[in-house]
């Protein structure tokens, strides 16, 4: 199979020592594994962190088993567990880079951005303990660099998981990452929350960090993660049942509290707070957050700019089109998306091997069939190559 596709949304599974192999011993009690009711669970700060149905990744759901569910095809009303069926033993390519390259060859993938799983749920658990949070992330990055590499070649790109909870520690962390050739830094969408309170990631407190990222040409990616969406739900009496694992609460699903709501707010904040005015070469990508939020955000930006143009240094709609790349979900209307945003800013992401993704990355190609050949080539290959500065 010819290697042509660039898939920006694949995932690895972290081994159980991913956070501890290089962890400073003084933080050894911050993160550990324990048997809880017969199942291995991740404890962070002595509390269980909901890191998936099988947190230790000994077993995983089969790829693509939830695809029809997310297309609205669960007419029988089956539960997610019923739809996913029995899990299978985790495949070697989920943990091993060399095995994964072989799978990419079979899938026709020239380059894959392979994203974290458990690494995306830790910030919420440790946001009030910045020293421990950065120690864990530093250890995680050393493991990731050793086992996968951030960008050893153009076949596999692995984002670093970063946080802005402490501006000084964030700059120090980014410097280390840049020295180790990172291409993508990954954030959870939403405000930055720490022991001091909450603020936008576009706050001027972080300007030195963003200048470092801008100068290096790295991509700032936002990926679905355990975050602050519980606060929205709590105001409506729903917070107790909402977490990263429980994506199937009907109220939170209607509001899309894990997906569309936080990324809509985040991109709106980056634009409204002038991040791209101060950092005009910064590149932002949204991954595993869909595109359903895009038309409404562009509508609101256009309306508000018409109401108060004096409040903006630049046209906010044009800033979105210039600085933001979007990865749509398989169930979304690609023709509608292309009608509201530039095809040059749309990326191809399969979410393989997650159950909510597609069974095989090439299964996603049919969703773009209504687009022109030129736009299909942009989305499945060229856009990501240019964004990631691939050869």
Account of the 3D structure:
The strands form five sheets. Strands 9-10-13-14-15 form a five-stranded parallel beta sheet. A three-stranded parallel beta sheet has the order 1-7-8. The protein contains 15 helices and 15 strands. A hairpin with a 2-residue loop joins strand 11 (192-194) and strand 12. The protein is globular, with a radius of gyration of 20 Å. The model has no long low-confidence stretch (mean pLDDT 93). The chain has a single domain (5-27, 92-224, 259-387), classed as Metal-dependent hydrolases (TIM Barrel, Alpha-Beta Barrel). The protein has 391 residues and is an alpha/beta fold. The relative contact order is 0.14. Helices cover 35% and strands 15% of the residues. Helix 6 packs parallel to helix 7. The chain has helices spanning 67-70, 80-84, 97-107, 122-126, 130-147, 167-179, 207-216, 230-234, 250-255, 260-272, 275-278, 294-307, 316-323, 334-340, 373-387; strands spanning 5-11, 31-36, 39-44, 47-48, 59-60, 88-89, 109-115, 156-157, 160-161, 184-187, 192-194, 197-199, 219-223, 283-287, 324-326.
Labels describing this entry:
391 residues; five-stranded parallel beta sheet; three-stranded parallel beta sheet; 15 helices; 15 strands; 35% helix
């Amino acid at each position: 199979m010819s290697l042509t596709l660039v898939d920006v949304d694949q995932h690895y599974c972290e081994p159980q020592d991913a956070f501890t192999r290089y962890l400073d011993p003084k933080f050894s009690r911050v993160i550990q594994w324990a048997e809880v009711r017969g199942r291995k669970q991740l404890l962070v700060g002595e509390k269980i962190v909901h890191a998936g149905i099988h947190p230790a990744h000994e077993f995983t759901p089969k790829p693509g088993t939830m695809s029809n569910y997310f297309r609205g095809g669960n007419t029988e009303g089956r539960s997610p567990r019923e739809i996913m069926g029995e899990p299978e033993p985790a495949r070697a390519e989920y943990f091993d880079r060399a095995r994964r390259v072989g799978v990419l060859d079979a899938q026709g993938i020239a380059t894959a951005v392979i994203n974290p799983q458990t690494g995306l749920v830790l910030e919420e658990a440790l946001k009030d303990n910045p020293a421990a949070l950065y120690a864990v992330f530093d250890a995680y990055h050393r493991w990731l660099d050793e086992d996968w590499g951030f960008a050893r070649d153009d076949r596999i790109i692995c984002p670093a998981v970063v946080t802005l909870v402490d501006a000084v520690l964030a700059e120090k962390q980014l410097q280390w990452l840049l020295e180790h050739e990172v291409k993508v830094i990954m954030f959870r969408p939403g405000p930055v929350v720490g022991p001091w309170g909450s603020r936008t990631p576009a706050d001027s407190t972080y300007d030195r960090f963003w200048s470092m990222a801008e100068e290096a040409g790295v991509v700032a990616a936002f990926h679905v993660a355990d975050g602050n969406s519980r606060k929205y739900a709590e105001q409506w009496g729903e917070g107790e049942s909402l977490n990263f694992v429980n994506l199937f609460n009907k109220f939170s699903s209607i509001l899309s509290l894990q997906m569309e709501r936080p990324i809509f707010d985040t991109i709106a904040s980056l634009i409204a707070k002038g991040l791209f005015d101060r950092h005009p070469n910064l590149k932002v990508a949204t991954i595993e957050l869909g595109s359903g939020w895009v038309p409404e955000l562009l509508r609101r930006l256009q309306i508000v700019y018409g109401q108060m143009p004096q409040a903006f240094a630049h046209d906010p709609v044009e800033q979105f089109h210039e600085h933001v790349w979007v990865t749509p979900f398989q169930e979304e209307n690609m023709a509608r998306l292309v009608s509201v945003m530039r095809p040059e800013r749309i990326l191809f992401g399969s979410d393989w091997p997650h159950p909510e993704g597609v069974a095989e990355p090439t299964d996603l190609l049919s969703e773009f069939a209504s687009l022109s050949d030129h736009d299909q080539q942009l989305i499945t290959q060229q856009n990501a190559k240019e964004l990631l500065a691939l050869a």
